Amino acid sequence: MKFHALITSFILAFCCIISAQEKEYKPVKFPKGYTSQLDVVYKTVNEWEGRIDLYTEQNAKEPTPILLNIHGGGWNHGEKESQSGFGSFFKNGYAVANAEYRLVDVAPAPAAIEDVRCALIYIYNNAKELNIDTNKIVIMGGSAGGHLALMAGLLGNNSIYDEDCTYKGEIKIAAIINKYGVTDLVPLAKWKSAKRWLGKNYLDAEFTQSVSPLYYVTEDSPPIFIVHGDADPIVPYSQSVKLYEALVNNNVVTEFLSIPNGKHGKFKNEDKKLFRTKMWQFLKELNLSNF
């Protein structure tokens, strides 16, 4: 009996290891004429390698716009491979860059911001080879990814978190798509995920502001599209309200799509469709859509 119990325990443990190490995600479908480059290393920190998946149309007659996509997961989990819904961007002639970053188990704040900035700078530094129009860079993310997308874009030429990467030109993002992301960590500092990510600095208001997008909004900020469910049980709806108000007060081009009874990204199909429609209308007005 003990022998069988031991074998059973071993099999269960082995299966758990396999399932943890081999999560299967559907590969990204991209159009004919595009080239995929997976797991390109954009940055290394000690033994950690920051990787990015690139889907580009390098033979296009003109440099193409590009979407930099950032996955969510409370800064503590998530994989870039979980992201695959880029069809409408490909239809609009966009290249796509899908980036990973250091999670809190590897390094606390501001590491994730530093990494996403490096991913952005990698695009700038390799724009010619990737056939990218750096005047048409859109950054998108949901939840923690929304927070990081906002930080990457709102920092602009502020190099406070660019110690690992450099770009000699101007960094000016064409637009940011923020899906229910955290915008002000100060009132959320004791929230479990935020406290863990902020680490020993979680009660340092100055530091917490420095990693919060809300405090970087100026009249020169890039256009921002916001979507948030008003019944979000994880990221308070008020986070997006505060960002929207700050953008309006600074005369920044913005739109706020509020989803009635919407949870944390778990929207009804009709709401998802509305989001896509509104987002592309927003981008079209910025001359960032072919629709």
Question: Can you characterise this structure?
Answer:
The structure is a single chain. The protein is of the alpha/beta class and 291 residues long. Helix content is 34%, strand content 21%. It is built from nine helices and eight strands. It has helices spanning 2-21, 87-91, 111-125, 127-130, 144-154, 192-198, 205-210, 237-249, 269-285, and strands at 35-45, 48-56, 64-70, 95-99, 132-142, 175-179, 224-229, 254-259. An eight-stranded mixed beta sheet has the order 1-2-4-3-5-6-7-8, sandwiched between helices. Helix 3 packs across helix 5 (144-154). The chain is globular and about 50 Å long. Mean pLDDT is 91; it is low at 1-22.
Distance N terminus to C terminus?
67 Å
With strands numbered from the N-terminus, the spatial order across the biggest sheet is 1-2-4-3-5-6-7-8
Low-confidence parts, pLDDT < 50 over ≥5 residues?
A: 1-22
Number of strands: 8
Total number of helices:
9
Summarize the structure.
Helices cover 34% and strands 21% of the residues. The chain is of the alpha/beta class and 291 residues long.
What's the SSE blueprint?
Elements: H1 2-21, E1 35-45, E2 48-56, E3 64-70, H2 87-91, E4 95-99, H3 111-125, H4 127-130, E5 132-142, H5 144-154, E6 175-179, H6 192-198, H7 205-210, E7 224-229, H8 237-249, E8 254-259, H9 269-285
Parallel strand pairs: 3-4, 3-5, 5-6, 6-7, 7-8
Antiparallel strand pairs: 1-2, 2-4
Features:
291 residues
